[in-house]
Write a structure and sequence with these properties.
By secondary structure, the chain is mainly α. It has a domain of 139 residues. 75% of the residues lie in helices and 3% in strands. It is built from 7 helices and 2 strands; from the N terminus they run ββααααααα. It has a two-stranded antiparallel ribbon with strand order 1-2. α1 runs antiparallel to α6. The longest helix has 47 residues. The chain is elongated.
Length: 259
């Protein structure tokens, strides 16, 4: 439909959408906001921080628990490395499967949306205008906006406004899996290195200290990214890690006395 053609639609609540030719913008069009796509990057960074957090806590639990059993240095090294490898691979596979399923579902939605646009373009335009109008936009303006968005890229417009999907930002499962694995490894190396490089008699206190400092950093970072209270997030993070290390150490010590 030509941009200057008047169009009349009705919303489900009975309001009419009478689109007159839109007024032209005056002055230069502003450049794209450099913050566009920031939420996607922040979500990826937040996921990386949480992956590192998982690596810290799970590996600390393993090495402290094994150390509590008073096993040899070789057994401690083998258990730590095996735990890090298993955790990293589990994170990679789990994230890959999860993101792949999400991506498949999003693609299926886009295919259905395209089929609906091909079958009933006017009806779909009506629905898009209704969605825009429900956000507080005047009905006639909503109709003009829906016409312009549809003329630019109908599938993308309907996907973003009606389905909440940005076709240009579908998650890559390979990237997600690799990022999760690397984040887990980065966090896991902290307790593993601390307990293996420390004198045996001081290994557990040194490891616990290193883990607490690392958890403080990841807790504050995650709170900063989410604009949440930093102190509460850091204390919650440290409390969870300390509890995990305490429980696994006690279990390891109990098992060690029985061996």
């Amino acid at each position: 439909m030509a941009p200057d053609q008047t169009m009349s639609l009705s919303l489900d609540d009975g309001r009419r959408l009478d689109a007159a030719p839109s007024h032209e913008c005056t002055g230069p069009v502003p450049a794209p906001d450099p913050g566009e796509g920031l939420n996607t990057r922040l979500n990826a960074l937040r996921a990386g921080v949480m992956g590192a957090n998982d690596g810290i806590i799970s590996t600390a639990g393993i090495v402290v628990g094994v150390a509590g059993a008073a096993v040899s240095d070789g057994a401690l090294f083998a258990a730590g490395v095996a735990g890090v490898a298993a955790g990293a691979l589990s994170m990679a596979v789990g994230e890959y499967v999860s993101v792949s399923s999400q991506r498949d579902a999003q693609r299926a939605v886009l295919v259905r949306q395209q089929a609906q646009l091909n079958a009933d373009p006017t009806g779909e335009l009506h629905k898009l205008a209704g969605v825009i109008a429900q956000e507080g936009v005047e009905p006639n303006v909503a109709c003009q906006v829906s016409q312009q968005l549809t003329g630019a890229d109908a599938t993308r417009a309907h996907a973003r406004f009606r389905r909440g999907i940005d076709p240009d930002e579908l998650s890559n499962p390979w990237h997600a899996g690799l990022a999760s694995m690397l984040a887990f490894l980065a966090g896991a190396l902290i307790p593993l290195a601390a307990i293996l490089l420390s004198p045996r008699e001081a290994a557990i206190p040194i490891t616990a200290t290193a883990v607490i400092v690392a958890l403080l950093i990841t807790g504050v970072t995650s709170a900063q990214l989410g604009r949440a209270p930093k102190q509460r997030a850091a204390l919650r993070n440290v409390a969870g890690g300390a509890l995990a290390m305490t429980i696994t150490y006690v279990i390891g010590a109990l098992i060690g006395t029985q061996l």
